[in-house]
Every structure is written in C-alpha cells, then in structure tokens.
C-alpha cells in the first residue's frame, strides 16, 4: 500500500495542532492530529445534505444558500447541481488554508466549484453570518467539523447550541431549511432542534454510496 504524503499543513486559530493535507494516489485526507476530518473517497453523505437541503429551491432563481464549511468542495459542488443558474451560494470557511487547497491541490476533485459565478467565499465563522442576517437564506447547510457532538474544534460547538440554532432560525426565510451533517447519530441534537422550533427530520446515510460509516443528516424547516 502506498504511504500517505504530506502536502501541506496550516495552523488553526485557537488550536494546538495544525490541520494537515495528505495524498495517497488519487485519494486525499485532511486531519487534525490523528482525527480525520474528511476523505475524498467518502462524500456521499455530503451529497445527500446538499441535495435534500436544496430540494425546495431547485427552480428558484432568487434562492440564496449559505454553506458552513468548504471541506473538499463536495457539498458546494452538489449544491450547485441543485440550485438555479441565477441562485447565490455563500460559503463560509474559517481556515484560509482550506480555501487555498481547494484552489490548488483539491481543485479537480469536485470539478472546481469555486470557479462558478454563483459562488462567493466568506473567510470567517459561519456563525457570524447567521447572526448578522435576518430572513435572508433559503437554505443553510452546516458541514462543519464532525457534527454536533463529535467536535475536533471546541469553538464550533456554538453553532450547534440553542443560541446557534436560534441564529440559524433567524437567518432563514420562512420555510427555509437548515441542513446539518454529522459523522454520528445524536438523539440529543434532534431534541435540541425541535426545541429551537424546527420541524425536524433525521436522515441516516452512508459515507460511501451504500457502504461505509453511518452518518446522520438533520433537516429542519423554519415554520
């Protein structure tokens, strides 16, 4: 088996360990310490997040989508497939290196979604954008860290707290959808979303087609 090759590393604000990008053949991996945040072979659940989160706005030329977390670009690429050619998609990414990797090493993985004219990048916390806007987004897709309870970065926890969910609710338009990706099921988060006022649905899915790890997606509709 081929060994992993370290392509680049970058500090993450507030964290002791660097984020590192590895390659093995045509496979890429992003890790913090020993924790793998994402792997280019396993993005089926991210595709489902985008498809279901944007299903209600597929033909809306005025739709506006906010994505929290650029990752390897798969969630963004799938969002573009399920939104109108005149829609607007904002991607908030906290780590500058992740943006740079998507413009270089990872650009071809998801067919260069950052080059799409509908896309704009916000270098910062998606929570800040949610708190700054009211009745703005038709869909908010959170693909941040490993989910509500599997956090590798403590600062991300605020997104999944009651206050974070309240900010998402406020930022969404009526009937807007909050989609949340997680590497793990978490019944307590389902309860938290319902308590925040979302009409909530759990969608179990797999990391790699119909195989791989079991992931969870929550869909919450703003009444």
Describe the structure.
With 223 residues, this protein is α/β, with parallel strands linked by helices. The protein has a single domain (42-221), classed as Vaccinia Virus protein VP39 (Rossmann fold). The protein is built from six helices and eleven strands. The chain has helices spanning 44-53, 74-81, 96-102, 126-132, 162-171, 187-195; strands at 5-10, 19-24, 27-32, 35-39, 64-68, 88-93, 119-123, 137-142, 172-182, 199-208, 211-221. It has a seven-stranded mixed β-sheet, with helices on both faces. α1 (44-53) runs parallel beside α2 (74-81) and α4 (126-132) crosses α5. The protein is globular. The N and C termini lie far apart (51 Å).
Uncertain runs: none
Total number of helical segments? 6
Rounded Rg: 16 Å
Q: Kindly report the spatial arrangement of strands forming the biggest sheet.
A: 7-6-5-8-9-11-10
Reading off the top of the CATH hierarchy, the class is best stated as: Alpha Beta
Distance between the termini: 51 Å
CATH superfamily: Vaccinia Virus protein VP39
Shape: globular
CATH topology: Rossmann fold
Structural class: alpha/beta
Counted up, domains total 1
SSE order, as H and E? EEEEHEHEHEHEHEHEE
How can the largest sheet be summarized?
Answer: 7 strands, mixed
Average predicted confidence as pLDDT: 92
Number of distinct beta strands: 11
Helical percentage:
10-25%
Beta-strand percentage range: 25-35%
Known CATH architecture: 3-Layer(aba) Sandwich
